């Protein structure tokens, strides 16, 4: 079983989406790793989206903070508060999301490795050699 670049799991000739992991993973330990990976991925995406939104809004606020106001025929340049605080909060949220994303990747690799080991153990149990002796001869059969 492997994972391609498009977030698909490949098992034999079949391809599965990331959300269909319950169909791919049969080992309970691999399923637990996969659930952790899914949870950590969701948390990292939430923090990343919030952080990206705060950074974007803060940058827009910082760029557009100088306004020209006309008061009784007099031109006044008014400076509003900048968005550096929002940019800092956004960077903090993204910084919180990064460890969750790294942990998600590690748990995904552990899940694939555990499932592959379980599949290889099952395949060795199923295959066998058998020596058949009949009335007319001897035969060797390979069962898989």
Brief characterization of the structure:
This protein is α+β, with helices and mostly antiparallel strands and 144 residues long. The protein is built from three helices and seven strands, in the order βββααββαββ.
Overall description:
- The protein is built from three helices and seven strands, in the order βββααββαββ.
- It has one domain.
- The two termini are 19 Å apart.
- A hairpin with a 2-residue loop joins strand 2 and strand 3.
- The strands form three sheets. It has a three-stranded antiparallel β-sheet.
- The radius of gyration is 29 Å and the shape is rod-shaped.
- The chain is an alpha+beta fold and 144 residues long.
Number of domains: 1
Low-confidence stretches: none
Structural class: alpha+beta
Kindly, what is the distance between the CA atoms of the first and last residues, rounded to a whole number of angstroms? 19 Å
Main beta sheet, described?
3 strands, antiparallel
The level of helicity is 55-70%
Work out the strand percent. 15-25%
What's the helix-strand series? EEEHHEEHEE
Report the C-alpha radius of gyration, rounded: 29 Å
**3D shape:** rod-shaped
Q: Say how many strands there are.
A: 7
Going across the biggest sheet, name each strand in turn. Answer: 1-2-3
What is the count of helical runs?
3
């Amino acid at each position: 079983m492997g994972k391609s670049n498009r977030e698909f799991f490949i098992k034999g000739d079949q391809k599965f989406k990331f959300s269909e992991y319950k169909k791919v993973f049969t080992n309970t330990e691999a399923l637990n790793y996969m659930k952790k990976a899914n949870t950590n991925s969701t948390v990292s995406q939430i923090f990343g989206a919030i952080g990206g939104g705060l950074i974007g809004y803060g940058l827009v606020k910082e760029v557009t903070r100088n306004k020209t106001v006309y008061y009784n025929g007099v031109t006044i340049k008014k400076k509003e508060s900048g968005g550096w605080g929002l940019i800092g909060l956004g960077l903090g949220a993204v910084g919180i999301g990064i460890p969750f994303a790294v942990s998600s990747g590690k748990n995904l690799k552990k899940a694939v490795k555990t499932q592959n080991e379980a599949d290889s153990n099952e395949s060795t149990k199923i295959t066998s050699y058998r020596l058949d002796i009949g009335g007319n001869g001897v035969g060797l059969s390979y069962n898989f």
